[in-house]
């Protein structure tokens, strides 16, 4: 029997939890997964208004969305978030660990608090959410898919981003480690490593950096949130049913040549 290609990207009947959903990349991921048929849980920390606006847009387009606020840096933040979603019949079987910080600081000026704050959101939050979601899936004996949003800086660091690059590098290894342990439970774990992704005002804030990126990138442009979201959709969908422990680089070819 022939199966259509579109059916492999159909997430109807699935529920996706997206951390950091109020930002440009997280919001685009949420919208894309909702368009593919998934119910979406939109996590935010402080930008509740932005998350609510996104949820209303998804609902206006026929989707199903739930907004929940949580501080993933707190010990029970992730577990309480997953429990609150379950209480409203949103049982996540897809997890997108997107929440992160991206502060800029030289190592000589960086405090231990700066370092720990970066890891608390980027790595500790992903760890706690993985435990909470996978624990529920294993208890129900259901399969699942996790996609961690890393960065090409986890592979090639940039000045001023030592804490960010280190946290993303750790997230990549956590992806492989959790794929190894959760695989026997039919839970796949992968990562997406974006390059420089455009946002409103980026070219005004950092014109020289954007110009250098465009000049060095083989595809000659900045990434767009949609580029990341489509990669996430692939990894979260049945299209990638035998893909686990991998890192999909979405950077316009930047890492194929000399470091920009």
Oligomer: single chain
Q: Given the C-alpha coordinates, what overall shape results?
A: globular
CATH topology name: Rossmann fold
- Portion in beta strands: 5-15%
Radius of gyration over all CA atoms, rounded: 18 Å
Keywords:
single chain; 260 residues; alpha/beta; 7-stranded parallel beta sheet; 45% helix; globular
What does this structure look like?
With 260 residues, the protein is α/β, with parallel strands linked by helices. The chain has a single domain, classed as 3-Layer(aba) Sandwich (Rossmann fold). 45% of the residues lie in helices and 14% in strands. The chain contains nine helices and seven strands, in the order αβαβαβαβαβαβαααβ. Strands 3-2-1-4-5-6-7 form a seven-stranded parallel beta sheet, with helices on both faces. α6 (162-182) links the parallel β5 and β6. α5 (112-140) runs parallel beside α6 (162-182). The longest helix has 29 residues, at 112-140.
């Amino acid at each position: 029997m022939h199966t259509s290609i579109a059916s492999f990207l159909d997430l109807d009947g699935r529920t996706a939890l997206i951390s950091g959903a109020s930002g440009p990349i997280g919001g685009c991921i949420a919208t894309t997964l909702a368009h593919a048929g998934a119910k979406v849980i939109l996590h935010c920390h402080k930008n509740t208004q932005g998350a609510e606006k996104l949820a209303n847009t998804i609902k206006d387009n026929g989707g199903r969305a739930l907004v929940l606020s949580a501080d993933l840096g707190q010990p029970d933040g992730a577990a309480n978030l997953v429990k609150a979603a379950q209480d409203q019949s949103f049982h996540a079987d897809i997890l997108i660990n997107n929440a992160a910080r991206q502060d800029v600081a030289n190592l000589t000026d960086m405090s231990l608090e700066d370092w720990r704050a970066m890891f608390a959101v980027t790595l500790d939050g992903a760890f706690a959410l993985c435990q909470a979601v996978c624990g529920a899936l294993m208890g129900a004996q259901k399969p699942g898919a996790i996609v961690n949003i890393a960065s090409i800086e986890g592979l090639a660091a940039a000045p001023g981003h030592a804490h960010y690059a280190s946290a993303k590098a750790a997230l990549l290894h956590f992806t492989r480690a959790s794929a190894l342990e959760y695989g026997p439970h039919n839970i796949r774990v992968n990562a997406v490593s974006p390059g420089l992704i455009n946002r409103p005002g980026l070219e005004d804030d950092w014109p020289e950096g954007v110009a250098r990126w465009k000049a060095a990138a083989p595809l000659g442009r900045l990434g767009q949130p949609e580029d990341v979201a489509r990669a996430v959709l692939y990894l979260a969908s049945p299209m990638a049913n035998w893909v686990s422990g991998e890192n999909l680089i979405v950077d316009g070819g930047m890492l194929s040549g000399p470091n920009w």
